[in-house]
């Protein structure tokens, strides 16, 4: 195999740097179980915690956050004015009553540029006796344009006529898109929630000074609460009697307030998870998610907030939702397909990503950490992407500690239907050690490392061939890695098939 000589080369790299590379793989699977000395459940911050309280007056901006547009020259600023209401006789605020203005510039004073955005309120309504309705504060989104790459900008947001402007915040733009231009550190987290363990994850993340944060689904877990504010660690077992899967929307505001010190300085890119579904009146779903965050959907040609793409320097990110249709006839698939070429695609999403030469796929949802070898269609493949699960942000649901390959833990295939795929999508393995079975009987060969601990990851693209991935566990010192790998691409061996063909 051609790999052998590469292995020798990379062995030298390994001995110098001490950090393994994917060229050293495939690696033997390792499982690290939950350290049983950890105290039980992750506990949510209560609504009395000062970090989740409303501290602004009147229509002063709160819950300020930044998100990227598709390119470096544009950034979204989002904020909320006015308080939410929850209960019986709620009366939605009129979003037109408060302007959406951002003043910004490279000097703190004067802020010479101005962007005007749009505003909205959303409601979470339950037409069932005994359930309380919610209406949000006024949510504002404004897009700053004409920004220079890698540059510090100061900004204030709010309504200058009231006057109700925020204090001055600052952020740094991404480097220009190009092969030798990368942000230094991108933090990747999933399934954050808002527990004391979440705060530990976020503290560790801040300690690594990221330039950008990616949140791969499951934000505040408002759907672990009834509308009266009573929460549970496991919704389905505690509240099976209610007529709809309730939520307690103020948890979203708590999350926005808690995160503001991070999100007002560092752009955050969010993609939806199952906890954002939040079904309500008229079967509406994902309303809080779609209303509260700004997404570069229009800028990236996506018709929805559920999938979009953007560049951070020379890195192209494709954010895909796992909770809306992603089969071949779905709009999301077609959008991804049209990003580069109309004719060349055949099979499912994974084929698409493989053919684009995607190197890493980050997932949330499973509440643990796992990193795979390069794999494609469950087979080890030096040109397949590395799959990394970072669902270990610290939310109050249980840490994932069982594995489907342990005795008695393999689920019945018929219990795993996927409604968003348009039906049933689980199949038995067709080849390899688990051929003909639904689960492996040991940690699969494609899995390198899995551990049941809370933490976050930092992704650092060094150059066109080398990206360093580091996973940090909450229980470790701030700078000591729990798992680390150089993801190395071999462009001559693994040319993306799409750009070849099209
Ligand atoms: C979660 O945080 C608590 C402290 O608030 C700590 O005792 C516990 O060990 C943490 N759990 C894990 C799995 O890190
Ligand atoms: C909440 O809103 C729904 C839909 O408008 C309505 O049917 C229901 O009566 C409202 N509930 C309360 C408690 O006001
Ligand atoms: C909320 O409703 C649940 C279920 O009806 C009830 O058990 C609980 O006591 C209520 N909590 C409050 C704070 O009213
Ligand atoms: C909502 O969904 C339910 C069950 O899926 C369906 O019976 C109902 O007709 C839907 N209602 C609306 C307004 O679409
Ligand atoms: C794809 O999913 C959509 C929505 O769930 C469904 O209507 C459609 O029949 C599915 N198509 C295929 C080919 O499975
Ligand atoms: C799939 O695997 C399960 C065991 O994991 C087995 O019971 C079932 O018969 C298999 N189904 C098919 C169609 O081979
Ligand atoms: C890319 O970065 C890696 C890690 O820093 C380094 O070992 C390698 O020599 C670099 N390659 C090029 C072509 O600069
Ligand atoms: Fe989750």
TrEMBL record:
Q: Name the needed cofactors.
A: Zn(2+); Fe cation
Per the record, what are the reactions this protein catalyses?
a phosphate monoester + H2O = an alcohol + phosphate
Ranges for the Purple acid phosphatase C-terminal domain? Answer: 438-476
Indicate whether Hydrolase appears among the record's keywords.
Answer: yes
Tell me which residues make up the Calcineurin-like phosphoesterase domain.
Answer: 185-369
Tell me what organism the protein belongs to: Salix viminalis
- GO terms for MF: acid phosphatase activity; metal ion binding
Main enzyme class: hydrolase
- Pfam families attached here? Metallophos, Metallophos_C, Pur_ac_phosph_N
Under the heading Gene3D superfamilies, the entry gives: 3.60.21.10, Purple acid phosphatase-like, N-terminal
- PANTHER family (alphabetical): ACID PHOSPHATASE RELATED (PTHR22953), PURPLE ACID PHOSPHATASE 13 (PTHR22953:SF15)
Point out the signal peptide segment: 1-18
Protein name (record): Purple acid phosphatase
Cite the entry's keywords alphabetically. Glycoprotein, Hydrolase, Signal, Zinc
């Amino acid at each position: 195999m051609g790999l052998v000589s590469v292995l020798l080369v990379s062995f030298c790299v390994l001995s110098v740097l001490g950090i393994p590379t994917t060229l050293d793989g495939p690696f033997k699977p390792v499982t690290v179980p939950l350290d049983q000395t950890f105290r039980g459940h992750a506990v949510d911050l209560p609504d009395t915690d000062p970090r989740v309280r409303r501290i602004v007056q009147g229509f002063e901006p709160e819950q300020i956050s930044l998100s990227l547009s598709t390119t470096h020259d544009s950034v979204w600023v989002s904020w909320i004015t006015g308080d939410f209401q929850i209960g019986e006789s709620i009366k939605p605020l009129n979003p037109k009553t408060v302007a959406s203005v951002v003043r910004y510039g490279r000097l703190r004073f004067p802020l010479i540029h101005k962007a005007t955005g749009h505003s909205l309120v959303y409601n979470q309504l339950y037409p069932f006796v005994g359930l309380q309705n919610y209406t949000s504060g006024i949510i504002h989104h404004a897009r700053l344009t004409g920004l220079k790459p890698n540059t510090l900008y100061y900004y204030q947001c709010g309504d200058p006529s009231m006057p109700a402007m925020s204090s001055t915040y600052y952020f740094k733009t991404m480097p220009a898109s190009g092969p030798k231009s990368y942000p230094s550190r991108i933090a990747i987290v999933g399934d954050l929630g808002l527990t004391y363990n979440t705060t530990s994850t976020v503290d560790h993340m801040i300690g690594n000074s990221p330039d950008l944060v990616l949140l791969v689904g499951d934000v505040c877990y408002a759907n672990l609460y009834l509308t009266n504010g009573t929460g549970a660690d496991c919704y389905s077992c505690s509240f099976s009697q209610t007529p709809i899967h309730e939520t307690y929307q103020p948890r979203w505001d708590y999350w926005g307030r808690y995160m503001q010190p991070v999100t007002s300085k560092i752009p955050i890119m969010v993609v939806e998870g199952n906890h954002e579904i939040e079904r309500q009146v008229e079967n509406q779903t994902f309303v809080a998610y779609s209303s509260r965050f700004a997404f570069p959907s229009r800028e990236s040609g996506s018709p929805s907030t559920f999938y979009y793409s953007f560049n951070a320097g020379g890195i192209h990110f494709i954010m895909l939702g796992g909770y809306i249709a992603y089969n071949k006839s779905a709009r999301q698939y077609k959008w991804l397909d049209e990003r580069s070429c109309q004719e060349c695609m055949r099979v499912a999403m994974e084929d698409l990503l493989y053919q684009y030469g995607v190197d890493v796929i980050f997932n949330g949802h499973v509440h643990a950490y796992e990193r795979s070898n390069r794999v494609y269609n469950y087979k080890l493949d030096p040109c397949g992407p590395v799959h990394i699960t970072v669902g270990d942000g610290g939310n109050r649901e249980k840490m994932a500690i069982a594995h489907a390959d342990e005795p008695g833990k393999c689920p019945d295939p018929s219990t795993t239907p996927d409604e968003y795929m348009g039906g049933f999508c689980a199949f038995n393995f067709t080849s390899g050690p688990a051929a003909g079975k639904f689960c492996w009987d040991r940690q699969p060969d494609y899995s390198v490392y899995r551990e049941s601990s809370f933490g976050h990851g930092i992704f650092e693209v060094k150059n066109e061939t080398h990206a360093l991935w580091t996973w940090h566990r909450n229980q470790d010192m701030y700078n000591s890695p729990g798992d680390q790998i150089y993801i190395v691409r071999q462009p001559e061996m693994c040319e993306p098939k799409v750009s070849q063909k099209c």
